[in-house]
Amino acid sequence: MQQKIPEELIDQIMSQNDIVDVIGEHIQLTHKGRNYFGLCPFHGENTPSFSVSPDKQIFHCFGCGKGGNVIKFLMELDSLSFVEAVQALAKRSGETIPDEYVPSSAESSISESEQSAIDAYEWAGRLFHHVLRYTEDGQEAYQYLNDRGFTDDDIEEFQIGYSPLKDQFLTSFLEQKGFDLQSLASIGLLSQRDGNIFNDRFKGRVIFPIRNHQGKIVGFGGRAVEEGVEPKYLNSPDSKLFQKGKLLYNFHAARKVAQKENEIILFEGYADVIKAHQAGVQHGVATLGTSLTESQAHLLKRYVSKVIICYDGDQAGREASKRAADMLQQVGLDVLIANTPYQMDPDDFIQSYGADKFQNQVLGTAETYVTFMLNHLKKDYNLHVQSDQFEYIEKALDLIATVDHAVERDVYLKQLVQDLGVQRDSLDEEIAERRRINERRDEQAKRARTESQRTQTRQQKTEIFPAYQNAERYLIAHMLQNQYVAEQVQERLGSKFNMQEHQVLVTYLYAYYEEGNEPDVSRFMERLPDDDVKQLVASLALLPIHDTIEREELDDYLFAILKEADVDQEIRSLETMLKNAEKENDPKSAARIGMKILELRKKSNKSKL
C-alpha cells in the first residue's frame, strides 16, 4: 500500500524547484516589481492577470481565481494527482522518491482504463522499434528510412518503429501481456471487425510515436511502405488521451529549446521535424495531419513570441501556410513564413541540399507576415489590368496600415511604388487615413475593455470591501508573513473572525506556527487539505502590504473586526427580541426592533476603510 510522502521530503523537493522557473517553462513571464506576470494558462485572456511571487513561491490568477504553490500549478496544468506532481518535480531536480510513496495505477489521476491504454501504447512503441532495428521483418522499412536519409541516431532519438504486414502481430503480443483487446480497439490501437475479431491497425507502416506534453506515447502516426497498403498515411483516431487538435508532434522535446530561442518552427509532417532536427533545428514541431487549430495556436503563444511556419513549397503548402499564419497572427504571435524552394517539402530539401542551405536559404530568408500576405494577394490579380491594380492597391494598403513600425511600412510602400509605378505621396496619404481609422477603432476597443475591467473590479470591490472584511483580509496577509503578528492576533482575537472561511484559515495557520514552522506561504499551503482554502491563501498572500505592521495599524484592524462582531451579536439579540414581540402580538415593539436591526445592518454594510 502506498504511504504518504513525508512533509520533509516534499519540502526538500519544493525547495529545489523555484516556482518562477517551473511556471516559466510553461508560460512566458514578465518581471514587474516584486512579482512576475503572464497570460493565465487556465482560462483565455489577452491581458495578463496571472501573477507569480518568487518571495512567497505561489501563483494566483486575478481573473479566474486559481492559486497555489508549484505542486498545485502542475496538478492544475497537467491534470496530475498530488503524488504525480511531486514526482514530476523530483524528476526535474534530479531527486528520487522511494517506491513506497509512488502511486499505483488505481491511485493515479487518470483512470485505470486510460493508464492501461498508455501502457499498451508504450509496449507497442517498444515492440515496433525493436522490429525495425533488430528483426528481419523490419529490414525493408529500415532500408526505406535509410534511403530517405534517416540515420540510426534519428531512429533512436524519435523511437521510430515498424508494424509488420501481419494481421495479429501486435494483437497477439498485447493479448499475452494481459491487455483487454476491446479497450484497445476503442482507442484505435487495434481494429475490430465482425464484432469479435481484432487485427493490427497500423500493419505495413513505419511508425512515428506521438507523445503528449509529459512525453508519454498516446498515439501513432503510420506511413505505408508496403505495396497496396492504404491509406498511405494513418493516424490514431481521436480519443480522450489523443486529440489531434490539441497536441503537436515533438512538442514535449522541443519546448525547452523553443523557450530559450523564444521561437518555434512549425512543420506539416513528422519527417520534416526529424530531418530539421538532423539539420540542427531542435525546436521544430508539427501538426498531426490536420490544419493548425486555435487550441494549438494558443499553446504556442504560452511558450514563445515568434513562430516560423515551414510548410511544403507547393501551392497546397502555401495555402496551408496562409491559414496557419492568420491563426497565429490572431492570437498575437509574431509570424514568419519560410519559402521552401522548388515546390519541395522541408524533408526533401534537407535531403537534397543539406543542413546549411536549409538554415540559410529557407529559415534564414523567412518572410514577414505582411510580405507573405502581399505576395499571396498578388496571385489573385492581373496587375497589367488597371481595375485589378486599383483593387490590389486598396487591399495592400489595408494590410500595410496595420504595421506599427514606420520603417517597416516604408519598405512595403517602396515595393508598391516599384512594382506598380504609383505616386508615393498618394500612398502616404491613404496610409495615414487608414491608420487614423484603425487608431479610432482600437481606442474604442481599448475603452470597451477598460470599462469591462472596471466593471469587474467594481463588482469585486462590492464583494470584498466592507471594513471588517477588508481588515480581516489584510490582517491575515500580515499573519502569513509574520509569525509574531499571528501570535498577537491569536492572543487578542483567537479565531473570532467574522468570515467563516477566515476562521478556518487562521485555525490552520495557528497550528502551523505551533508546530515550530517558520513563515512560508508555499509550505503552509501544502499542509492545507482543502483547495478552496489554498486558493484563498494565494489571493490574500499577494495583497499589497508592507513588510512590517505598525501597532496602530494592527489595533485598527482588530477594532474593525471586533466592532463587526459586536454589531453581529447585537443584531442576533435584537432578532430574538423581534421573534418574541411577534409571538406576543406586539406590532409596535416589533416595528421598533425591526427598524433598529435595519439601522445596524445598514451601518455595518456602509462602513468602509
TrEMBL record:
It is an enzyme of class 2 (transferase). GO terms for molecular function: nucleotidyltransferase activity. Residues 440-460 are annotated as: Disordered. A zinc finger (CHC2-type) spans 40-64. Keywords: DNA replication, DNA-binding, DNA-directed RNA polymerase, Magnesium, Metal-binding, Nucleotidyltransferase, Primosome, Transcription, Transferase, Zinc, Zinc-finger. Residues 262-341 form the Toprim domain. Binds 1 zinc ion per monomer. The keyword Protease does not apply. The keyword Ion transport does not apply. Its cofactor is Zn(2+). Its EC number is 2.7.7.101. Residues 440-452 have a biased composition (Basic and acidic residues). It catalyses: ssDNA + n NTP = ssDNA/pppN(pN)n-1 hybrid + (n-1) diphosphate. Pfam families: DnaB_bind, DNAG_N, Toprim_2, Zn_ribbon_DnaG. HAMAP family: DNA_primase_DnaG. Belongs to the DnaG primase family. Monomer. Interacts with DnaB. Contains an N-terminal zinc-binding domain, a central core domain that contains the primase activity, and a C-terminal DnaB-binding domain. RNA polymerase that catalyzes the synthesis of short RNA molecules used as primers for DNA polymerase during DNA replication. This is DNA primase. It comes from Alkalibacillus flavidus. The lineage of its organism: Bacteria, Bacillati, Bacillota, Bacilli, Bacillales.
